[in-house]
Amino acid sequence: MKTVLNVLCAFAATFAVAGCTTYESETDLNPEGPPMVRQVRMKETFSNPGSTSTSERRVFAFGTHPMASEAEAHPVMSATASGNGFRVIMDELLVGNHLEEIACRAPVDTDAFARVPLGATPDDVARCSAAQDILPRTCGGENAVCLCDNDAGCTVGVTMVAKGAPVGVLDINQDGAGDETRLIDGAVTFRCGALTVPMDLDASYWNPSGNQQVPAMGGFEALGPALVMLPQRGLPTNVTCQLEFGADVVDKQGLAPCTPLGGNIEDGCTPGDTTGFTFKVEPMSFENDPPNMATGVSKTTQVVLLANTQLDMTSVTTSTVVVTTTAPAVVPTYTLSVMMNRNITITFAAPLTGSATYTVTLTTGVKDSFGQPLPTPYVITFTTAA
Q1: Average pLDDT, stretch 292-314?
Q2: In 214-282, where do the E strands start and end?
Q3: What torsion do the CA atoms of 29, 34, 37, 38 make, to the nearest 10 degrees?
Q4: 42 near 56, Cβ under 8 Å?
């Protein structure tokens, strides 16, 4: 949950708040022309030299910085599929009202969040944070926040509020300001082919502060102003993705964001054109136990396959996860279980044959949670103990 100051600062691109960043602050790095994406930081998976193992690191996938080395700034062709987070650093402020919405005391439509109208001030928020019994007198007009938008009305505790009447801003500490904001669904996301990546709206946010000065605390992750984006269930594998803003996301001049070539704001870009930045996500892959080509494996072993992404659990069947061996050895009946939507465990109903070689094949019918298939079959073999 954000502090009250952060809540108000989230909308600082629309109105001035004491202690918050405004258009005249040092975060106005390049206010002329359209708002441009200057850098994008994200996590990539890379191969360790001289080894079959891989590691992860945060890099500038778009743009660069004078303090960044070549290894820290380059196009990303193997974005980490699971647990990735993005910092989209802008060259100027965006209108925060189109990026975040404020928490209300009860659902006002399909959820308990509402947009703050353009032109609203902290005083308007305070008037709509008043006690429930006086809200009808204090919260109204074109700048009112958290009004009921359900034809059947809205329920706040045991009170029924008519459509158009105030539900009230969530203000548990009663300081006259909202307690929480979240990213507006669709305000900013990634388009990966025909797929749209849903964001974790509560964990993602707009940070309207910072500049290109790298502080001692936070490093590159403190550059700003920035959108911090956390995908809800990771990224689709083996596909190229592009940044996408909602149609109403603009700067104070009403211009849509764009991505200048290589993040060079001197080159400029056309408002709304974000084709200048793309990245590719790593393919689906697995680690396994027992290891491939292992010998002396227990005849009562289970086989565990660890995916690098969440799986479509309906795609994990005995038709797509196949165990074979050669006669006279046999493959006992086996069952499959999936833990945390990504770890497959094969359990055999009876001991395996001793001194026999078994092959486990994951076919391309295995898919991630976005429906992206395993690009090629994944095959391991192991030999049991005598």
Answers
A1: 97
A2: 226-229, 240-245, 278-280
A3: -40
A4: no
Q: Which two tokens stand for residue 266?
A: 């001197």
Q: Are 71 and 80 in contact (CB under 8 A)?
A: no
Rg (C-alpha) for the chain, rounded Å, is 26
71-80 burial: b if 16+ Cβ within 10 Å, else e: eebeebebbb
Q: Contact, 176 vs 129, CB < 8 A? A: yes
Give the mean model confidence (pLDDT) for residues 8-25.
42
- How far from the centroid of its chain's Cα atoms is residue 385's Cα? 45
How far apart are the C-alpha atoms of 209 and 207, rounded to whole Å? 6
Q: Rounded to 10 degrees, what is the CA torsion of 366, 367, 373, 377?
A: -20
In angstroms, rounded to a whole number, what is the distance separating the alpha carbons of residues 183 and 186?
9
- Measured between alpha carbons, how far is 193 from 304 in angstroms, rounded to an integer? 31
The three-state secondary structure class of 174 is coil
**Of the candidates 356, 376, 355, the residue with the CA atom closest to the CA atom of residue 366:** 376
Q: Of the candidates 120, 104, 61, which has an alpha carbon nearest to the alpha carbon of residue 86?
A: 61
Report how far Cα 279 is from the mean position of its chain's Cα atoms: 15
At 228-282, the pLDDT tens digits run 999 999 999 999 999 999 999 999 999 999 999 989 999 999 999 999 999 999 9
With 0-12 / 13-18 / 19 or more C-beta atoms within 10 angstroms meaning exposed / middle / buried, residue 172 is exposed
pLDDT digits (tens, 9 = 90+) for 68-117: 999 999 999 999 999 999 999 999 999 999 999 999 999 999 999 999 99
Rounded CA-CA distance 107/160 in Å is: 12
Q: List C-alpha distances in Å: 258 to 103, 157, 264.
A: 29, 44, 11
Domain ranges of the chain: 4-96+184-280, 286-384
Measured distance between the N- and C-terminal CA atoms of the chain, rounded to whole angstroms: 58
Contacts of 243 (CB under 8 A, 6+ apart): 37, 40, 88, 188, 190, 191, 259, 274, 277
Global confidence as pTM: 0.89
In whole angstroms, how far apart are CA 297 and each of 166, 322, 344? 67, 18, 18
The residue count of the chain comes to 386
Task: Give the architecture (CATH level 2) of 286-384.
Answer: Sandwich (2.60)
Q: If residue 150 lies in a helix (H) or strand (E), which one and from where to where?
A: none
